[in-house]
Amino acid sequence: MIDATGHGVGVAAVTALEARGHQGPARVVIQGFGAVGRAVARFLEARGHVVVGVADVEGTISADRLPVAALVAATDEFGRIERSGLPQGVTLSAGADAWLDVDADLLVLAAQKHALTAENTHRLRCGVVVEGANLASSGAAKEKAAGAGVTLVPGVIANIGGAASAALAVTRVVPFGLAADARKAWVFDWVGDRVRQNTVDLLEIAAGRAGDPLPELLAARRADRR
Ligand SMILES: NC(=O)c1ccc[n+]([C@@H]2O[C@H](COP(=O)([O-])OP(=O)(O)OC[C@H]3O[C@@H](n4cnc5c(N)ncnc54)[C@H](O)[C@@H]3O)[C@@H](O)[C@H]2O)c1
Fold first, then answer.
1. Quick one: CA torsion of 111, 10, 79, 45, rounded to 10 degrees?
2. 112 alpha carbon to ligand 1 midpoint, in Å?
3. Among 43, 62, 189, 196, which is disulfide-ready with 53 (CB 3.0 to 4.6 Å)?
């Protein structure tokens, strides 16, 4: 379902910000402005957060506040943002990782595999990273981020929305008797509830010990099912 992934990634982001005690609007950078990145941007802006940077394959656009609707309108089907009509006062950076240089509280990785690596993780300026793309951070990057006190929510927790909504439809768990809008809301609630709980539990495990918290969470979920 369109936007279900971005919805879940947005829920993971606000849950992680809350877990860190972040209060008030967060400054957000979104790397990748495709289906996932645009949905996350809308989700977070609608909840009062401020998008200060977005990146597509051609570089990074930043400002104190980027107008999400205008950026979405300037973006083509491949997630490329047309630069010519952008509002005045935005900064354009062509460097491959320039999204790392924008001062922010939250970074959403919604472009490609291994955007964050052992080589560039030291440049992180935010306290929270959420993976919208699969394997958006390498294993070494995750270790470095944890060592630097950064909260990182992996894609396997945050970006389940699309896969989950397809599975819910195929297995006919979705209440098909509902009207389209209500059905969409039902699926979004289902995704949001799981992502929120999994994020809270993952971060609780991470706070209690060193190392990757994911295996312990997955083991706990398997035990719950027995
Ligand atoms: N769409 C989904 O429901 C879904 C679900 C789970 C995971 N994912 C994964 O999330 C990622 C994004 O998915 P999508 O559907 O939004 O893709 P998309 O193709 O619609 O958009 C990708 C975006 O990333 C940008 N991009 C590509 N390479 C980049 C780079 N090196 N630096 C900066 N920006 C770059 C593109 O310009 C575009 O804006 C993909 O890796 C995809 O496999 C998607």
1. -130
2. 6
3. 62
pTM: 0.97
CA of 67 from ligand 1 middle (Å) equals 20
3-state secondary structure of 78: coil
Identify residue 150 by its one-letter amino acid code.
V
**Tens place of pLDDT per residue across the chain (226 aa):** 679 999 999 999 999 999 999 999 999 999 999 999 999 999 999 999 999 999 999 999 999 999 999 999 999 999 999 999 898 899 999 998 999 999 999 999 999 999 999 999 999 999 999 999 999 999 999 999 999 999 999 999 999 999 999 999 999 999 999 999 999 999 999 999 999 999 999 999 999 888 899 999 999 999 988 8
Do residues 46 and 25 lie in contact, with contact meaning Cβ atoms separated by under 8 Å? no
Instruction: State the greatest distance between any 2 C-alpha atoms of the chain, in Å, as a whole number.
Output: 58
Q: Give the SS3 label for residue 75.
A: strand
Rounded distance from Cα 34 to ligand 1 centre (Å): 5
Ligand 1: list residues with CB < 6 Å.
Answer: 5, 31-37, 55-57, 79-80, 110-112, 132-134, 159, 162
Q: Which amino acid is at 121?
A: T
Q: Which two tokens stand for residue 7?
A: 């919805």
The domains of the chain, with CATH numbers, are 4-213 (3.40.50.720)
Which of ligand 1's atoms lies nearest the C-alpha of 33? 39
Q: How far apart are CA 210 and CA 118, in angstroms?
A: 18
